[in-house]
Amino acid sequence: MIYIVEAFVEDYLHVFANVNLIKIFRNVYSDESFVFISPEKHNHNVKKYFESEFSKISFETIINLNSSPRSIYDRVNLIFYRLLRDYRVLNSVFKRCRPGDKIVITHIHFFSLILLKLFKKKYRSITTFSVIHGDVEFVFFSNTKEQKVVGFFHELMFKVKAENFYYLFLTPISKDLLLGAGKTTIDETLAIELPTFPLEDKFNSNPIAISYKVKIGHIGSAGLRKNVDLFYKLAIDLEKSICKGDLELSIVGVLENTIAPFLNPLIINYVDNELNKALSRELYDQKIATLDYVIFFYGKNDFILRSSAAFFDAIYYEKPIIALRNTFFDDVFKRAGKIGYLCESIKEIETLITLILKEEKFKLEYLNLVENIKEYKSSLSITDISFSLKKEIELRQSL
Description:
The chain contains 14 helices and 13 strands. It has helices at residues 15-28, 40-47, 72-96, 113-122, 145-159, 172-180, 229-237, 239-244, 281-289, 309-316, 327-336, 346-358, 360-379, 382-398; strands at residues 2-6, 34-39, 57-62, 102-107, 127-132, 165-169, 189-191, 214-219, 247-252, 267-269, 293-296, 321-324, 340-343.
């Protein structure tokens, strides 16, 4: 039996990630039955993708404790109840395990990471995988007290060693950084590239050419943490092309509070300038599909250690990328080939867009970029990811 536990997210967040993780582990352990355990709404959303397979996958729910505390007291109270809930969930799952059973923790609150390790030290023989999400970046890059606390608990987890315990990182570069820094050891460290789109439901763009009016959009949530203020600066520099109708810039996603001072009509949004207003998934998908390029402004070390859902949305819809050069994109372009353009500065992005609007060679190259994305996307199959992970697990277990 394989127990897969999602003890953090609720509703629609991470649904495709968890659906893909279930399918990947199902391929790795093809003879086993599976139990997926998560908060109720999330459980229901994941369950929809396995309706024809209930004989091999069962679904169980746990209480959801995600909320927005209004005071320090509420926050401390929430942490206490999360720890208590997570203790009960982990205790129940580990106690149910029989020889040969395995546990996959897809997400758990950072306070409970050490709790997981302590259970693992008690139940030594039960093979356990812990999926490590982007908060691990706070081990290396933390600016606030809260980020430092999150980084501390990850660091503490890494220091507590346990038999038959494996970290599963969601980007190859994450594994390399953690190993290089001596935070984890090779015998406990695994990595996959986990897309956050439905891997078995391929979108095919079949573009004939770039649009007459070039459409460039930032996708996902838009705020200062993603440097989206630079997009508005870029729009001002490209105002003539926008006003002439040669160029359309848009934000497809939520406008965060921090972007409010920069809003202007040169960049279209689909939430009527309303902050923190969510787009429906249908509208989000529809608007991405109409873009020619997707643009990102990540900082030098942003998204090195976390899987970017917006990036994978761009890949799913086969949209060439324009981005500031950073470690994340350097690594992706090294593995995927030329799937867009990496620029050293905002000025260079402005020059690039101006050339795209004027020069025929960019229109010809566009189709080559899309073909490269298609090839990269085809490498992100359940079969290939599962095969790679299975080989990694077998190698670690032989050490």
